[in-house]
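URGENT: need a sanity check before tomorrow's submission.

F., can you look over the alcohol dehydrogenase (NADP(+)) record below? I want to be sure the sequence and structure line up before it goes out.
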Amino acid sequence: MSASQELQWKGYAIHDTAKWNEFKVIDFKPKPAGDYDIDIKVEFCGVCGSDVHTITGGWGAPNLPLIVGHEIVGTVVRVGPKVEGFKVGDRAGVGAQICSCLKCSRCDNDDEQYCEQPVHTYNSFYPECGTLSQGGYATAVRAHERFVFPIPDALKLEDAASMLCAGLTMYSPLVRHGAGPGKRVGIIGLGGLGHFGVMFAKALGSEVVVFSHSARKQDDAFKLGATKFVITSEPGYDESLKGSLDLIISTTDSAAAVQWETLIPLLKVHGRFIMVGIPDEDLAAFNATVFFGNGGLFGGSHIGSKKEAIEMLKLAAEKQIKPWIEVLPMKEASRAVTNVKEGKIKYRHVLKVDI
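Structure tokens as predicted:
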């Protein structure tokens, strides 16, 4: 019997979106093991804002009972017969996606996160068997090799955990939109996503400007590597920055914080405004002329590819990037998601498996 068969597949699940922070331990079965599947015994799982949006029903009614968590790290305990990149005992991680069609042009060109047939790490049904995917607030996870990432020895597992969603969500748009030496990058919001944005933008060689609604996190921004801190609630905050930024990445999940009329003019000609935060509410309407003054471009970004994940983890190891995390036992998942919803964490919770 393999180590993965000996595992008891258990997890902390939500049963009711009205009781979104009440977790109960359940037994569950993963989907049938495939030739390219890898089983990971979970040791740590980061707590993501996506978890909160899902269990509260903010992004729509989830499939219940549901185990969330998609910043998963641990040890490989089983590999399928056609897996080539991993062996039992390897340190490995999984982010927000565990499979795709694997054959479309997007999958063939390192854009598998944009596949039109994704299987998300939780709250997603496998098309071939109908099994509901369950996340990393659990003892184990099963994922296709394409969506499993090797964790460098130089990184602690608990530090690597939140990089696999929050970190990758920031790293991908930074590198795809030209962050590097000589570039000036704006980060809107200094939270779980934003603090990674500051660290990775700096590590890539960019100057970093942080936008926040108050001065409360100013000292943190500079400690993380920002060169300028802007308080958006102050009248005229934008005047000295017009036409000065190559790239702005918005991490906020508040639709009201996306102030088109003042933020877009801060871009250089053909500069880019990229959304990675996903508010529950619709964004405010705007007049299209706001983009004409500088030819500004607006877009979004979704997690990142395996290629980018490997590059990001290598950069983190080389530059000794350490996220600001607080580790809690997994039985305190309720406290963790409540803190995330209420903005009481600097800047990521990571849960240590205790079942």
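My own read: The chain has a mean pLDDT of 95. DSSP finds ten helices and 17 strands in the chain. If you see anything odd, call me.
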